[in-house]
Amino acid sequence: MNYYISDSQDPFFNIASEEYLLKMYDKDFFFLYINQPALIVGKHQNTLAEINLDKVEAENIPVIRRLSGGGTVFHDLGNLNYCFIKKGEKGKLVNFKKYSEPIINALQKLEVNAKFEGKSDLTIDGKKFSGNASHVYRNKVMQHGTMLFSSDLKRLNQLLKVNPLKFKDRGVRSIRSRVTNISDYLLHPISINQLAEHILSEIKNIYPTGSIFQLSDSDKQAINKLKEEKYKSLEWNFGYSPTYTFEKISNFSGGRILEIEMKVSKGRIESIELAGNCINKEAINEFYEHLKGVNHTKFAINKVISNNNLNLYFNNLSSSELLQVLF
After folding, report:
1. Each residue of 265-307: pLDDT tens digit?
2. d(Cα 213, Cα 20) in Å, to the nearest integer?
3. Is the dihedral of CA 106, 107, 110, 115 positive or negative?
């Protein structure tokens, strides 16, 4: 077992590091890291259906799709993340309970009554503090999880609050659970770095022949390349979402109503239909053509809006109101 403790708090770098260590090394790893605030979306999720886009944009929170399935999670400086990368026998690689046991045992030694519940959750007093997800690559499994230690739970709930009625798709939906912080249950206060040391000590007891691992300069270059080309790309973080239909009715002052039904595939608008008393019916089809093939992101759509005279297509509707309709 190789023990790798990241000295980076860059969520793009650390998420890319997981894929790099899984695919580029024929070794077992236990990896710990802490990220700056970020939302980490499951591989098979519709990103826009999981996040509070207005809040995310207002706070400039990175949104990153990870390699594994499962639900969307919030990372911040009060959240310790762990990752096992382990070789094994095909068909027997995924075992959430096995890789969660060292975490539970370490917390039990701190007299925190942590338990494994359901498919992959770790709880205290019935409240979730850790969710786990896995990804199989050849004869290896990557299982990783969060550990809410002193995370901003109010912010977590605000960033993940979204209207589920807007989206119809086959993406995996996050199941919202009551969550809690480990620090609330400690008899003797410790820091998150001390918790990391305590967890690592438990892992070293299980794998006593392991050694500390450091990334080489070439490793860092390769991870940064993966970070820039994949994990910071709209195509991966938003475009990889399953095909979905976006539906919404918006009401504006003066009795103005605008209703939308829009189909999005691979992150791009495939078809769009608008109805309501704000539309110039004779010209609206031309506006549809401007939007077809455009990424369903505010940046891309705002560019289209800026390059067109909305008065040709809409009656008494501002660009900000139209953006409101489209998200």
Report:
1. 999 999 999 999 999 999 999 999 999 999 999 999 999 999 9
2. 14
3. negative
